[in-house]
Amino acid sequence: MLTPEQCLKKSGLQGDWVIRSIDQGLSHSHYKVVAHEGREVRAVYAMRIYQTHDRPWLDHSHELNVLTQASNLGLAPQLIYRSADDNFFISEFIEHRPLKVCTEGSALSFEQGRLLLAQLRQMTIERKMSMAERYTQYVLKARQLRPSVIHDPKFIHVCSVADRALSVLNLSQWQWQPVFLDWHEQNLLYTPQNLYLIDYEYCCLSALPLEMASLYESRLFDDHQWHQLKQWMEVTYNETVSELQLHAARILYLAMCYVWYIASDVNAEQDFPEILARIARLTEDK
Questions:
Q1: Per residue in 164-210, pLDDT tens?
Q2: How far apart are CA 137 and CA 256, in angstroms?
Q3: Residues 15-53: pLDDT tens digits?
Q4: Distances (CA, A) of 263 to 137, 138, 141, 256
Q5: What is the structure's pLDDT at 89?
Q6: What Pfam families does the record tag this protein with (predicted)?
Q7: Exposed e or buried b for every residue in 242-262, given b needs 16+ CB within 10 A?
Q8: Which residues pair with 206 in a beta bridge?
Q9: Which residues are 250's β-sheet partners?
Q10: At what angle do helices 153-169 and 272-283 cross, to 10 degrees?
Q11: 10 by DSSP, 3-state: which?
Q12: DSSP letters of 94-161?
């Protein structure tokens, strides 16, 4: 994998740089890069360096094509440099701050959600991945990485309820819609002027119920704001998602989250009880 110093050299950006690691993701490393001129800070950038991976649901060239459009729209922080081989990029750095610090409450407003979705819809997204394809890829990879899950009662149960949920959703034909599918607080950045969306790894064309499930389970919206947003989405996307279908999509989405952790070889045992509890609440007496 490239080093931050090698990336800076390739980019042609000049300066006396101080590099600090922010986080090491599953498929990338993320850095804060500060350029000094004497005692003054001249520029502050974010750098993401991609690692090699064998996860078929990821496509970094596609992700960067979407990111480039998002940057041009002002939906993502300004893109400063994108490598020719799509193995790293440099962008404007914006400090992540908790949602409750940046909003009047602890939730996004309907208008904020509407604006983010409207900007997503302006982009040209070419990659298609159906709900069934994504779920199947996660399951196959999980079984490959941890063969023991085949006999794990929790894994078997999660896959069983996901299969039933998918069968409910497959009773309808869904249009190919632009979806983000990774809605959570860590993927939002704030300035006094703007709200940004970052991390487009899962952005593709897929079915609307799964996007609604991701938005709902993110808990970014209170009930009133959520209902407004769902109504707006149904009108704007020209598709209706019934409560039964949304219920099934939420089960499928949570099951995907559970299986994804295993498929990505993440040690996230602390997250499993919460996901399983949510699935249990949705599947009681079902």
A1: 999 999 999 999 999 999 999 999 999 888 999 999 999 999 999 99
A2: 10
A3: 889 999 998 877 889 999 998 877 788 899 999 999 887
A4: 9, 6, 5, 10
A5: 98
A6: Choline_kinase
A7: eeebbbbbbbbbbbbbbbbbb
A8: 177
A9: none
A10: 50
A11: helix
A12: -----HHHHSSSSS--HHHHHHHHHHHHTS----B--HHHHHHHHHHHHHHH-GGGGG-HHHHHHHHH
Is the torsion defined by CA of 132, 138, 142, 144 positive or negative?
A: positive
- In DSSP terms, 88 is beta-bridged to 49
CA–CA gap between residue 181 and residue 212 (Å, rounded): 9
Which pLDDT score is estimated for 114? 97
pLDDT confidence of residue 252? 99
Q: How far apart are CA 282 and CA 252, in angstroms?
A: 11
Residue with tokens 């004497």: 38
Q: 195-197 and 204-206: which strand pairing?
A: unpaired
Domains in the chain, please, with CATH?
A: 4-92 (3.30.200.20), 99-283 (3.90.1200.10)
The string of pLDDT tens digits covering residues 128-148 is 999 999 999 999 999 999 999
Cα(124)–Cα(273) distance, integer angstroms: 38
